[in-house]
Amino acid sequence: MYRALLICNSVYPFEPVKLPKLLGPVRDGLAMWSALTDTEKGGLFSPEDVEVLFECDKDEILKTANRFFQICDPDDVLLFYYSGHGKTSRSNLHLCARDTTIELLPSSSVSGNELKSYMETSPSQNVIVILDCCHSGAFKGDPPKVSPGPLAGKGRFVVTASSASQRAADASEAGHPSPFTRALVEGLRHAEPRSVEEGTLVVEDVYNYALQTLPKDLPRPLRRVNGVGDAVIAKRPERPAQETVSQAVPHQPDPSPGPFLDWLRRRGFAGPGLAEPSLGNRLSWRVFLLAASLVGLFAYLSCQTWYSEMAYGYYDWSPETEFFFLGCGALAALCVLACLFEGLGPKNSAWAQRLRRATGFAFGALWFESVTRIGLNYEEQALLQSVMMFFCIAAVLDRLHDSLFFAGALVSFAGVIVPAENLGYGDFDINVLFQALASTIMLALWYFGATDRHFAAMAAVSLALGGADFLTHGSVPGVSLFGSSLALLSAVLGDGARPADGSRSLMRRGAASLTVSS
Fold first, then answer.
1. Sorted alphabetically, which Gene3D superfamilies does this protein's record hold (predicted)?
2. Where do the domains of the chain lie, and which CATH numbers do they carry?
């Protein structure tokens, strides 16, 4: 059996300066998947046996790689592919993950030694490793010594995009694979096998094709062998008319998603997709900045209403309530500063991201305090509680994909059960039923890892239902409208966890991701 694990990381939110966004990895994974599973060109990999993962944390990569190398048979051919940033420390290669920080590189990245330990204990006798990253030649220590003989078939082969001291080339523009991966994909489709009679394509054939077709000014790919025989990676059928790599890659996002994202793209925020992974990581701090500003505004308005209500005798003065409003204002100001430094600061902003997330947990504590002990019951307080609930959920689920959308969907669902005097729907009727159904569908779309288009469409439907309730009943379901608006904004901006045109459901690993440490 032929099995492959393709890891593609393009964005690194904890190191936006030292590990800048890459254009190639999203397309690299799709192109490799298509070439490996293309039976018309002799692909030997079944689609269900090629797992493609985008924007993974270190723990996700290690757990998936361990399972990939351990749960197999001796005759299986295993292909491990990585596209992303690569760094070296003490002559050892480190594959960067979504949560990698340069200051803590050994503990926040996937080291070559960890991968090698999985391979050495794997039952499989046939392992192929392809690394499209900077310094990839450092895998296994020193740069590999190329022998004139054929690549091994029973054992381990490593093909890298560069030497240990060189930087690999990224794609020239979004929506295209990197030069190295493009050469490999074209080799898998068009390289001539050494034995034309047998029609079997081995790794060396693909490597030689890439070596010959890559531009001379780019780093030279390297190979390393530890084994005997030939590794068959494809079996050539009769060659039909040649096709280009761009024709064979799976579905691409609509190149004209709309004027708003066209405006963003012209300013360097987005590629051709509706919301490529880089978009959310560059803009998500703006969503939190907006939410923090709303906390400060609603806290001020709610405090003023409280003072007014006390003047009429509706509420008594309480030090706990006053402390609650002061805490909301102070946390909001702190979060605004963290977001501004994260988005506009010239230095590493990992500490600002951690501070922003910590304020989310603090907002959760204040939200619980307001619900259980403060007991204020007016519209401004309901909006304040809603935005604090959004903040807390987004902080708790920070490492899962589309956490901002999920938080907005939960706030929208909470509006169904909130009383009408607190900007909820109030009495049960058909509007409440439809809103509950819409919010449930939003949560289901999140669970199954749907596309940004589906997220945005369902959030818009939820907003429309809130508007319909206002037209029919005259009341404003503010909590659901607020949650749906945040969900729609988050769907448009994305959070950088996966490509906009979808992927194999990342949330099928969601429960395991909850255990990933921050």
1. 3.40.50.1460
2. 2-235 (3.40.50.1460), 430-494 (no CATH)
